[in-house]
Amino acid sequence: MDTSDIQKLTDWLIDGARSAASSTHMFGETCERIVAAGLPLWRVGLFIRTLHPEIYGRNFIWKPGAEVEMGTVDFQILNSPDFQNSPLIAVFQQGIEVRARVDDPASSRFPIVAELRAEGVTDYIALPLLFIDGSIHASSWTTKQPGGFTDAQLAALRRIVTPLTRISEIVTLTRTASSLLDTYVGNRAGERILGGQIRRGHTETMNAAIWLSDLRGFTSLSDRLPAETVVDILNLYFDCQVAAIRKHGGEVLKYMGDGLLAVFPIDEYVGDDQKVCSHVLEAAHESRVSVAEMQYSIGDVVERFRFGLALHVGPILFGNIGGGSRLDFTCIGPAVNLAARLEKIASRLHRTVVASEGFASICRGGWSDLGEFPIAGFSKAERVYGLIEETSAD
C-alpha cells in the first residue's frame, strides 16, 4: 500500500475534492484512489442521515468498475429486521466501529455475513462518521483480499474517514438546507433563497396561473373536533391537492389555515399560457376527485369533505416580504387578491371550481358563464365561470 497516495487523497479531501463535480463523483473518486493506492476494496457504502419529513437517510454504494448508486430510505427502515440485525445499528446508536471478519465465528451474529461470504468477501468493517453537530452517520468497507484487511490498511481507512466525514458533512448541510427550503417554501423559492435572494425587497414580477383553495366548513369542523384531529384532517386534505399540483408543474407557496396558495409559472417568451392553464385544470379535476373520495372516521361517524377552488391568471410580485429579520418568500398583487375574492364567490355559489374570465378565455371549453359579480376592492365587476359539468351543491 502506497502511503504517499493515501496522503494525497486525504489532502484532496481536505481541500474540498474540487475536481469532483458532485457528491457521488467525490465518493467514487475517493474509492478509486484508495484502490489505486493498493488497498483492494470490494463494496463500500456511505449512509448519511438527513433532516427530511419523509426520508430517514441517503445511501451511496460503490463497487469496482461501476457508477456510484445513490438511494434513499424512509423511516420504516428503523423497524426492519435487516437494519436491527445489521452491524450499522451499533454504529448509529453508539458511534463505535464494528468489524465482521467472515472467517470469525463471532461474526455469524450478523445475517449480512452469509451474504458477504457468498460474494467472496473476506472482511467487513463499519466506521462511524461523527459530524460536528453530534449526529452519527456510517460507512462500510469490504474486501475480498485473502485474510481480510491488514492493520495498516485499517489504519489507512480510519485516516481517510476523518476528512471524508468533514466533506460529507458540508455536502449534507447544503443538501439539508436545500431540502428544508423546498419543504417549507417550495422549489423555486428555495432555489432563489440559496442563490442569494435573501434581502427584504428582493422581488421579481412573473406571469402565473394562480390556485387558491380552502376547505368548506372548516370553522365548524375546528369548533367541534379536537385540535389533533383537525390537523390530521388538514394533512390528508392537503395531500389531495399537493400531489396533483406538483405533478402538473405548480408550486405550493403557502398554507393559510385551511387555505392553499399555489402558482403555475408561465413563460412569457415561450407563450405557453394555454399549456400551463390546461395543466392547472387537470390538477383541479384530480384534486376535486381526491377530496370527494376523502373520508375520515370519528367513532361511528364518517366525515366527508368538500373544497372550493378559484383559478386566475395574471402578473404577480414574487419575492421577500416581511419585517426586520423575519421574512416570507411569497407572492402578492391584484391577481392574487382577485383569486381570493373569486374563492369566496365559489363558496357563495356552492361551487367547487370557479375561474376568472382571464383564465377561462385561455383554457377554453368546459366552462359555463355564472354571471358578473362585484369584487370588493376592485373598481369593476368580474365575470365568473364554473365547470360546465358541475351544478351548484346544496
TrEMBL record:
Top-level taxon of the source organism: Bacteria
One Pfam family linked to the record: Guanylate_cyc
Occurrences of domain Guanylate cyclase (ranges): 209-343
Source species taxonomy: Bacteria, Pseudomonadati, Pseudomonadota, Alphaproteobacteria, Hyphomicrobiales
Gene Ontology biological process terms, A to Z: cAMP biosynthetic process; intracellular signal transduction
InterPro entries: A/G_cyclase, Adenylyl/Guanylyl_Cyclase_3/4, Nucleotide_cyclase
SMART domains linked to this entry: CYCc
Matches recorded under Gene3D superfamilies: Nucleotide cyclase (3.30.70.1230)
Record-linked SUPFAM superfamilies: Nucleotide cyclase
GO molecular function: adenylate cyclase activity
Protein name: Adenylate cyclase
Organism name: Bradyrhizobium lablabi
